[in-house]
Design goal:
Elements: H1 2-7, H2 12-22, H3 26-39, H4 44-80, H5 95-119, H6 122-145, H7 147-150, H8 152-191, H9 202-210
């Protein structure tokens, strides 16, 4: 009776662990592995540091983009007389509206492309590519369509929104990576899995493979 009572509480434990492992979604594990392989964090502590670094850089770039728009387009456009720049041929937007539309398109393109890459979704990546081309059209339109009339002012108009688009693009990319790493960290804590490669076994396996076949 004593042996039977001692064995009964321990028997269900392996079954519980199996059920927990089988409940993991294969697609979620695949995405976790894909993110880790691309961003290459060393361990859970490095993930936290990467989240902080990327989020801080993203916030700084977003604020820099807003300041650039205010100085170079909103306030500076009054002195340069941006009102002379013709409206866009696609949508008939004025230059100030286009300067706001371009960052939105760049951020959306980065988001759709990132989601499509991590999930292996061709449709999302296709949408991201289309939005990127649309943003590029609005960027180069003043320089290509109005150069004969405005010359240097047309180039300067395209240059200002190009700088804005580059900063917003980097900021969006950093923000998306920070959100992905945050999701990786939360998923590892909730699921109880470790997606980082083991550093203790790989070197031994490598030396075994490279060992010469001598007795």
């Amino acid at each position: 009776m004593v042996l039977g009572e001692d064995a009964s509480p321990e028997a269900p434990e392996p079954q519980t662990n199996l059920d927990s492992d089988e409940s993991h979604d294969p697609e979620t594990l695949f995405i976790l592995d894909s993110i880790v392989q691309r961003l290459k964090p060393r361990d859970a502590h490095h993930v936290r540091d990467m989240i902080t670094e990327r989020a801080r850089t993203s916030g700084a770039l977003f604020i820099s983009s807003a300041l650039w728009w205010w100085i170079a387009i909103s306030e500076g456009g009054q002195e340069i007389n941006d009102a002379q720049i013709p409206n866009s041929t696609l949508g008939s937007f004025d230059y100030v509206t286009v300067s706001l539309l371009i960052p939105a398109l760049v951020a959306a393109a980065t988001l759709f492309t990132g989601i499509g890459r991590e999930r292996g979704n061709a449709t999302m990546s296709q949408i991201g590519g289309g939005l990127g081309v649309l943003a590029a059209f609005y960027i180069i339109e003043p320089a290509t369509m109005s150069y004969g009339e405005l010359e240097g002012d047309a180039l300067f108009a395209s240059g200002r929104v190009l700088v804005l688009a580059v900063m917003v693009g980097f900021a969006s990319h950093m923000m998306f990576d920070a959100l992905l790493l945050q999701w990786v960290r939360a998923s590892m804590l909730n699921m109880g899995v470790d997606v980082f490669p083991s550093s203790g076994t790989d070197p031994l396996e490598g030396h075994a493979d490279e060992a010469p076949p001598y007795a």
